[in-house]
Fold this protein.
Amino acid sequence: MRTRITFLALALLLSASACAMDPGTPGASPDDSGTAGDTPSSPAADSAVGIWGNPENTREPSLELHEDGRLTGTDGCNRLMGRWVLEDGTVRFQEVAMTMMACPDVDQWLASAASAVPGEDTLLVYDGGGNEIGSLTR
């Protein structure tokens, strides 16, 4: 009985400490070094917030970067969802998940997006190696 109570107390303690650390907070640095980027609701992030591409054409890639740090979109076949932060003028995509339908006639380049640089009317998209893989217009 005492072991069960000790285990339950430990489980509650771990649960409480996990709730105190929210790695998905917009602008939070993944390494928690205190050098967070611009939060999506900051004035510097305003240039990135919005719809990139045409979400009404579901056969073409599009992204919506929401003010609260969420991202939604499609690669032209599969739906994407995740988070984003702006660091030194670069959008960093985080915790991105997507459906995994087979789409033989669709170029799914957006599925490998790791970052992007917003311009006035164009979002340049890069893979994890820093190679430009595509662009989306506002």
